[in-house]
């Protein structure tokens, strides 16, 4: 099996095709919302992931489950795209295709993704302050926060934007202090 980079190379053309359809129909944001909801569902349901990735499940069964998940109000183009993935036996790439689509959407909207790790959930004011800091760092129009809780950092936050990492956690400060004391 190929690594994530290999999956990204395979998934990118599908994400670009979906973006092309979305742009031609002026549905980029609507597709983005549908994809975020689908990603949340996939990340919270191991059962669904296993079902979609199981090579012994018939295509019609996968389509039926996807149709039930999407419901009646789903966009026809998005539904057809998912059915195409099932027909082409590429449904196991769904999660990566969704991630690639969201990356393309962020690129178009000049939005950056900031991964924030904190010891406790961020308040609205703290999240806003983090967004302002990231906008100042990157000159982006908007910032999309992806937050994660890790009590091991004790306090503060770790912000990752692309390859830049800002470690303002208590654990990071203690580690830097320890390094300075041992090198002195």
TrEMBL record:
Recorded source organism is Fischerella thermalis JSC-11
| Described purpose of this protein according to its UniProt entry | This protein is part of the stalk that links CF(0) to CF(1). It either transmits conformational changes from CF(0) to CF(1) or is implicated in proton conduction.
Q: Give the subcellular location.
A: Cellular thylakoid membrane; Membrane
Against Pfam families, the record matches this protein to: OSCP
Record membrane topology:
Peripheral membrane protein
Keywords for this protein: ATP synthesis, CF(1), Hydrogen ion transport, Ion transport, Membrane, Thylakoid, Transport
Could you tell me which NCBIfam families the record lists for this protein?
ATP_synt_delta (TIGR01145), PRK05758.2-2 (NF004402)
- Example GO molecular function: proton-transporting ATP synthase activity, rotational mechanism
The entry assigns this protein to a family as follows: Belongs to the ATPase delta chain family.
**Gene3D superfamilies noted in UniProt:** N-terminal domain of the delta subunit of the F1F0-ATP synthase
What are the GO cellular component annotations?
plasma membrane-derived thylakoid membrane; proton-transporting ATP synthase complex
What protein name applies here? ATP synthase subunit delta
């Amino acid at each position: 099996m190929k690594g994530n980079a290999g999956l990204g190379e395979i998934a990118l053309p599908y994400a670009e095709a979906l973006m092309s359809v979305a742009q031609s129909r002026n549905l980029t944001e609507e597709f983005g919302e549908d994809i975020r909801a689908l990603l949340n569902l996939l990340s919270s349901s191991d059962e669904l992931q296993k079902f979609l990735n199981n090579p012994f499940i018939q295509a019609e069964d996968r389509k039926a489950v996807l149709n039930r998940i999407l419901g009646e109000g789903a966009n026809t183009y998005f539904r057809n795209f998912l059915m195409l993935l099932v027909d082409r036996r590429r449904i196991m790439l769904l999660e990566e295709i969704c991630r690639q689509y969201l990356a393309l959407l962020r690129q178009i909207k000049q939005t950056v993704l900031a991964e924030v790790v904190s010891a406790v959930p961020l308040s609205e004011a703290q999240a806003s302050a983090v967004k302002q800091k990231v906008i100042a760092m990157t000159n982006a129009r908007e910032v999309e926060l992806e937050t994660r809780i890790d009590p091991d950092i004790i306090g503060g936050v770790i912000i990752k934007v692309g390859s830049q990492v800002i470690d303002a956690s208590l654990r990071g400060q203690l580690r830097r202090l320890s390094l300075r004391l041992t090198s002195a």
